[in-house]
């Protein structure tokens, strides 16, 4: 996979991009990712996340709005491994992860607010394929996300194709 540098994309397509202005930390060995957005809105419950990552990812990116909760983790090493093995490009979480040492050993990337050792609930609450807003960016299903060491960008179309 070719990593599209966010700084280069801003230089070329700034008017077509929005920047996620949020203090997300990258976990995992992959330098970044890009892909079509799939969204989940949930709060301290990861059952819908697991079910989604069990599906073929086909290079898509899962964006999760967990309400900025860091009281428990929405993704751990097992769920991250599901995403990687099923072809998801990466994950962005407005919330926490756990098992960060194991995730940091994976050739995968997750951007999250923080870590927490506590498990989330498994009540199957939440919604999929809904518009999300955090970090002054809108994450719309079907739009495109670019993530690397410089940050996260969102566009209505895959701008790297010109």
Please state the average pLDDT score: 96
Write down the Rg.
14 Å
CATH topology label: Glucose Oxidase, domain 1
How much of the sequence lies in strands comes to 25-35%
Number of domains: 1
Helix content range of the residues, please? 10-25%
The helix/strand class is alpha/beta
Kindly report the name of the CATH homologous superfamily.
Answer: Ribonuclease E inhibitor RraA/RraA-like
Instruction: Write down the CATH class.
Output: Alpha Beta
The tally of strands reads 12
Count of helical stretches: 4
EC number: 4.1.1.112, 4.1.3.17
Pfam family, one: RraA-like
Binding site for substrate: 76-79, 98
Keywords: Lyase, Magnesium, Metal-binding
What would you say this structure looks like, in words?
This protein has helices spanning 6-13, 47-53, 77-85, 100-104, and strands at 17-19, 25-27, 33-41, 61-65, 73-75, 90-97, 110-115, 127-128, 132-134, 137-139, 144-148, 151-155. The protein is globular. It starts with 5 loop residues before the first helix and ends in a 7-residue tail after the last strand. The longest helix has 9 residues, at 77-85. Helix 2 (47-53) links the parallel strand 3 and strand 4 (61-65). The model has no long low-confidence stretch (mean pLDDT 96). It has one domain (6-156): Glucose Oxidase, domain 1, CATH 3.50.30. The chain has 4 helices and 12 strands, in the order H-E-E-E-H-E-E-H-E-H-E-E-E-E-E-E. The protein is an alpha/beta fold and 162 residues long. The strands form 2 sheets. Strands 1, 2, 3, 4, 5, 6, 7, 8, 11 and 12 form a 10-stranded mixed sheet that branches. The protein has a two-stranded antiparallel ribbon with strand order 9-10. The protein is 18% helix and 34% strand. Substrate binds at residues 76-79, 98. It catalyses: 4-hydroxy-4-methyl-2-oxoglutarate = 2 pyruvate; oxaloacetate + H(+) = pyruvate + CO2. Belongs to the class II aldolase/RraA-like family. One of its GO terms (molecular function) is ribonuclease inhibitor activity. It comes from Pelagibacterium lentulum.
